[in-house]
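quick one before i forget lol
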Amino acid sequence: MQKIVDKAVEYIPSVERPTFQPSFTLRLKWTLAALLIYFVLAFIPVYGIEPKSYSQYRFFEIVLGAKFGSIMTLGTGPIVTSGIILQLLVGSKILNWNLSDPEDRKKFQSWSKFLAFLFAFVEAAAFVLGGALPVRASYLIPFVILQIAFGGILVILIDDLVSKWGFGSGVSLIIAAGVANSLIISLFSPFALYEVITPTGTELKVGLPSLENPPVGLVWRTIVSLITSNYELFILSFLPIIATLIVFLIITYVQDISVDIPLTFTALRGFGRTWGLKLLYTSVIPIILTSALVANLNLIAQMTQNELISSTIYFLTSPTNFLENLFLGKLNSLEIVRAITYTLLLCLLAAMFSYFWMNTSGMDPKSVAEQIAGIRMQIPGFRSNVRVIESVLNKYIPTLAILGGLLMGLLAALADLTGAVGSGTGILLLVMIIYNYYEILSRERLEEAPSFIRKFLGE
């Protein structure tokens, strides 16, 4: 099977790795170009589908950088879904690959690309045949599936482009762009939404605002509610803004918490440094995988006609307007149970993916110990030996991976329940991705960077 996959991967389009070290400016240009391509594709509609409101798929759009009804309908879904499957298979030892071994790592990368390409077609077919995207005529179904799958393949290429020629990951970049776009619209959109009855049902249409139907943007809605002395609307509009700011501050604070391991040079006694192990040890990847899995569960609940499946998934997704209903006294016991099960699900999944990611991405104690030994450093009071360093790190790293995952899941759930703008999970992803980019850019050769970036990074 591995030979078949390796052969198939040879025919899958990819971006060539540069044969030289790209300059900071060149990498920045390619990153911005990838971002521009994403936004352009998000505004190109799929030919052959009925016009429809896709508000019920909003969570899926936010956490996967998707745009239903456009070429970007799948977003990063195929890449993230393939990542989820491989993380589960490798982490549970069903696939007994040692990713510190170059040969096994090559297998992992081949399967990642192969499954992502395959899921572009599988998910496109599922969306169309499952009714998520209503097609005008049955003879157009294959053409619609091909358009959506083509969009998924373009995202795979964008991710490849950014990882080789730009900064960071294309998946993170697209998700951050999608969340930022949703955040700006939710806060500042000057337009109102109106319900319009059509032959296919009720649809939401964009129109000019009025005092009776204020703008969608929460900032303008807050101002209008003060002018009209509608204090209930003011509180309901202002609460999500406050919740967003609180979530932003908490995540920014937690990002800086770390455990510092003292190190000294083996040959130069008295000289050393510290090796920081962050509380959010595995960073943003576990919450991306968790959010994608929850988004897919949400999508299944929307598309399926099976009452048992829909009822089960109902308790595994976030209740809508939880804080608003709590404030208005409309919260019932069922919604409280749903909030608890959703929080537990996010915490457990994030902790699991965090632990798996630690073991599959070279962040496990053994790999870190080899890095430390490789730069001729040791932990004071211990012998300069990889196994000794590994035994010390083993006391911290697995615990931090699990604890960090639990904390990320809890923060994401609380952010969703408080009704933070653009979805709480989306805000969590956005802040963590921006912080990751800040760290990536800080490690670059900033003498080549434009002056505004140097000022932003405090150089």
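fyi The longest strand covers residues 258-265.
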